[in-house]
């Protein structure tokens, strides 16, 4: 039984002789371990530490450091700044994998004059990912599918205010983001992967960042659609 089958049996609550594991690392630690272990490619680190999963990150910002697609990640525009495909400018400190939004493009609660991007195709990376990982559980991840992307575009405080004061704009913005996210998810699940990991951070230690009513109004319909797309393909799903 290979690692892929063991992970599937574990998720299906079947008894296994081993407990499968998967360890992710920051970019800095990934590079240090690659050097320490004498590996030519950082992509080989997961295999070297015995990971049962292989991971491809199809998102254009943040998320796991394993499987990042450099060609769709933010484009460097300064010594410590980069711009993503939505026009958001990020600043990265040394050793920081996530970054900080320093210039959101939507200065006002309006999409007038703003052209949402069409997602770059990920097909060749998904095909290579599946081909290179025949025996490991194939996990595709996407961070910031709705909520985080929305506040990246407006700024955190502005977007929180928008949800209370500019409801029509928030619905319009979420619709634009969903068009992008749905296209990315639809392409990914058309390949021979095993699971999809959707990461959107709307919680704190004891509660949501917003009221449950707001979450249900603005974000539940989109997340439900994305979850249904993944589940209808018979794939495992991890949503946060």
Question: Briefly, what is this?
Answer:
With 240 residues, this protein is an alpha/beta fold.
Give an overview of the whole structure:
By secondary structure, the chain is an alpha/beta fold. The chain has a single domain, classed as Alpha-Beta Barrel (TIM Barrel). The protein is built from nine helices and eight strands. The protein has helices at about 5-10, 25-35, 45-50, 125-130, 145-155, 155-165, 165-190, 210-220, 220-230; strands spanning about 55, 75, 80-85, 90, 100-105, 135-145, 195-200, 235-240. It has a four-stranded parallel beta sheet. A four-stranded antiparallel beta sheet has the order 2-3-4-5, with no helix packed on it. A hairpin with an 8-residue loop joins strand 4 and strand 5. Helix 7 (about 165-190) packs parallel to helix 9 (about 220-230). The longest helix is centred in the last third of the chain and has 22 residues, at about 165-190. It is globular and about 55 Å long. The mean pLDDT is about 95.
Poorly predicted ranges: none
| Overall CATH architecture | Alpha-Beta Barrel
Using only C-alpha atoms, the radius of gyration works out to 19 Å
Structural class, by secondary structure, is: alpha/beta
Question: Per CATH, what is the topology?
Answer: TIM Barrel
Quick tags:
single chain; 240 residues; alpha/beta; TIM Barrel; four-stranded antiparallel sheet; 8 strands
Question: How are the SSEs ordered, and which strands pair?
Answer:
Blueprint: H1 3-11, H2 27-37, H3 45-48, E1 53-57, E2 75-76, E3 81-83, E4 89-91, E5 100-103, H4 123-132, E6 137-143, H5 147-154, H6 156-165, H7 167-188, E7 195-199, H8 212-218, H9 220-232, E8 236-239
Parallel strand pairs: 1-6, 6-7, 7-8
Antiparallel strand pairs: 2-3, 3-4, 4-5
């Amino acid at each position: 039984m290979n690692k892929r089958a063991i992970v599937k049996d574990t998720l299906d609550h079947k008894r296994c002789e081993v407990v499968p594991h998967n360890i992710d690392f920051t970019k800095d630690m990934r590079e240090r371990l690659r050097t320490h272990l004498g590996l030519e490619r950082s992509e080989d680190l997961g295999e070297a530490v015995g990971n049962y999963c292989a991971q491809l990150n199809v998102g254009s910002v943040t998320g796991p450091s394993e499987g990042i697609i450099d060609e769709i990640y933010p484009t460097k525009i300064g010594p410590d700044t980069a711009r993503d495909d939505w026009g958001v400018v990020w600043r990265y400190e040394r050793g920081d994998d996530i970054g900080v939004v320093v210039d959101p493009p939507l200065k006002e609660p309006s999409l007038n004059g703003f052209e949402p991007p069409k997602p770059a195709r990920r097909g060749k990376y998904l095909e290579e990912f599946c081909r290179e990982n025949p025996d490991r559980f194939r996990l595709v991840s996407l961070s910031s599918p709705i909520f985080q992307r929305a506040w990246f575009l407006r700024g955190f405080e502005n977007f929180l205010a928008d949800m209370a004061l500019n409801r029509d704009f928030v619905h319009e913005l979420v619709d634009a983001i969903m068009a992008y996210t749905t296209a990315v998810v639809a392409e990914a699940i058309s390949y021979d992967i095993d699971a999809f990991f959707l990461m959107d951070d709307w919680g704190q230690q004891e509660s949501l960042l917003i009221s449950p009513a707001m979450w249900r109004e603005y974000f539940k319909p989109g997340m439900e659609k994305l979850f249904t797309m993944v589940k209808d393909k018979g794939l495992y799903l991890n949503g946060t």
